Amino acid sequence: MLVFRWTARQLIRWAQHTYETIHFLLTEEEEDVPIEETLSKTIQNPSGIFEHIDALRRHLFRALVALVITTSVSFVYTPQIVDFLAKPIGGLQELVAIDVTEPIGVFMRVALLTGFTAALPYIVFELWLFVAPGLKKRTRLGSLLTIPIATALFFAGMAFAYFVLLPVGIPWLTQVMGIRTEVRPSSYIHFVTTVLFWIGMAFEFPLLIYFFALVGLVRAQTLLDQWRFAVVVISILAATITPTIDPINMGLVMLPMVILYFISIGLAYLAERSRRGQVTPG
Q1: Global pTM value
Q2: Partner of 231 at 20 to 30 A CA spacing, among 50, 72, 103, 197?
Q3: Distance between CA 19 and CA 23 in Å, rounded?
C-alpha cells in the first residue's frame, strides 16, 4: 500500500512538472539566436555544454524508465503478438525450434520491440522537451504536434511491412527453387522484427526533414535539386532492408520511400515558410 501511494505521488508530481514545462515552453518566447552565434558561444564557453549534457541525461533516463514499463507490460501480451507475427508464414506450427533457449529468446525480442513501439511517443516527447528551449515559440508548437504524427507514421511503416511486404517476400524466400525450408523461430522472428522496425523508421523520414528545415539545417530547393542522388541512396537502403533479392520486393520498398522523399520536400517548404513568418522587422 505504501509503495502504491509513493508511486501515485511521484506520478502526480511528474505530471504537474511536465504540464508546467509544456506551458512555459508554449507561452514564453526565447531570444532568437542564430545557430552560428550559438556555436560560437559554445566554443568560447565549453563549460556550458555540460548543462545540456546533464539535461539530456535526465530526459534519456525518463525515456528509459518508460521503455522498461512498456516492455514489462508487453510481457503479458507477447504470446499473442508472436502468434500474430507468425501468420505470414502460416502460423507457429510452421516454425521448428532446435535449441532449448530459442523460444525464450524469441519471447524477449518480441517483448522489447513491442515495448519500444508502445514507448515511442513518450521517447519522442522527451527528446522534444530537450530541444524545445532552443526553438522559437511557434516552432515549439509545430514540432510538438508532430509527435502523434511520428507515431502514426511509424505504425504505418510497420503495417506496410506486415501486410504488403512480408506476404510477398516470405513465400518467395521459403519456396525458391522448390527446396523445402524448415524455419527456425529465432531466425524468423529476427527477420520479421528487423523488417518491421526499419520500415517503420524509414517512414519517419518526412518528419525528420521537416524538423531539420524548421531549424534551418536543410532547404527544400536543395532537396529538390538532389532528387536523383536521393533515389540512388533510397535504392541502396531498399536493397539493404528488402527481405529478398528480387526487384519486385525491392520496388515495393523503394516506391513508398521515394514518395516519402517528395513529401519531405513539401514539408521542408512549409517549414521554411513558417520560419520566414517568424522573422519580424528589427
Answers
A1: 0.74
A2: 197
A3: 6
